[in-house]
């Protein structure tokens, strides 16, 4: 598969900026497609733009973004060296929780971003991103810090759920755990990339040979552990 080009991602960003698939387009100031290195091994997926992100059209530029940048610095990275995206590309009014129909409308964009960037690790920040990418309702408190071999858009990667920086900002215990989980990222990045195995069980009937999804496609997530099973422990994947 040819690597993603800036042009591929720029075209997708333009599509997202013009999106009217859900009602959030009527209340947003700017869409927030995501930004960073299109060939990075590491991708972050947050929940949705907040006030500052909506104003600037850029992800994680508020307080949570500052913490994310500090955490990145602790492992020797800057935000320009990773790709940062969100489940929703438009701000929900008053920062309310994303609604299922909004997540469903936006999900194909995230799947296409993963298919273009082809990261080795996708780090989900908080409950919404983690539940969407695992296809499992288990909350972040239960699954944080446990890498799961996963495939989306025919691309295999480690899904690595961690607490959302915004939640950790005001909860010291959560911040400690977030830092601990974050510091394990370099080891995960050094590990061999999991392949999108043909033998991995799928969560739906979508054909595995299907190209990257477009708006309207159902989620196509494959993982090594069955979705109903508890997430694989790092030890089971030979990690940590
Ligand atoms: N919180 C998120 O989940 N995403 C952002 O872009 C900013 C804050």
Write a brief structural summary.
Helices cover 34% and strands 13% of the residues. It is of the alpha/beta class and 240 residues long. The chain has a seven-stranded mixed β-sheet with strand order 1-3-2-4-6-5-7.
Please tell me the CATH architecture by its name.
Answer: 3-Layer(aba) Sandwich
Bound molecules: uracil
Total discrete domains: 1
Q: Output mean pLDDT.
A: 86
Q: What is the topology, as strand order, of the major beta sheet?
A: 1-3-2-4-6-5-7
Task: Enumerate the spans where pLDDT stays under 50 for 5 or more consecutive residues.
Answer: 198-220, 223-231
Which band does the percent of strand residues land in?
Answer: 5-15%
What's the CATH class label?
Answer: Alpha Beta
Q: Which bin fits the share of residues in helices?
A: 25-40%
CATH superfamily: Uracil-DNA glycosylase-like domain
Shape type:
globular
Compute the number of strand runs: 7
What does this structure look like?
This protein has 240 residues and is an alpha/beta fold. Helix content is 34%, strand content 13%. The chain has a 7-stranded mixed β-sheet. Residues 198-220 and 223-231 have low confidence and may be disordered. Bound molecules: uracil. Residues 46-50, 53, 59-60, 64, 86, 166 line the site of uracil.
């Amino acid at each position: 598969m040819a690597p993603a080009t800036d042009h591929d991602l720029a075209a997708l960003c333009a599509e997202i900026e013009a999106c009217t698939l859900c009602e959030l387009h009527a209340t947003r100031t700017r869409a927030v497609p995501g930004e960073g290195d299109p060939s990075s091994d590491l991708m972050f997926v947050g929940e949705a733009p907040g006030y500052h992100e909506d104003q600037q059209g850029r992800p994680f530029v508020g307080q949570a973004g500052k913490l994310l940048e500090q955490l990145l610095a602790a492992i020797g990275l800057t935000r320009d060296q990773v790709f940062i995206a969100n489940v929703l590309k438009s701000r929900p009014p008053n920062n309310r929780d994303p609604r299922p129909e909004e997540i469903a409308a936006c999900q194909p964009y995230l799947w296409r971003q993963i298919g273009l960037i082809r990261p080795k690790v996708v780090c989900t920040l908080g409950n919404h991103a983690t539940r969407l990418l695992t296809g499992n309702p288990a909350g972040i408190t239960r699954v944080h810090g446990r890498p799961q071999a996963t495939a989306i858009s025919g691309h295999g990667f480690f899904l690595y759920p961690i607490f959302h920086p915004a939640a950790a900002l005001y909860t010291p215990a959560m911040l400690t755990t977030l830092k601990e989980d974050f510091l394990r990222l370099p080891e995960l990045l050094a590990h061999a990339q999991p392949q999108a195995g043909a033998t991995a069980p799928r969560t739906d009937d979508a054909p595995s040979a299907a190209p990257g999804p477009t708006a309207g496609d159902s989620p196509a997530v494959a993982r090594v552990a069955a979705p109903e099973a508890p997430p694989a422990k790092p030890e089971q994947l030979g990690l940590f």
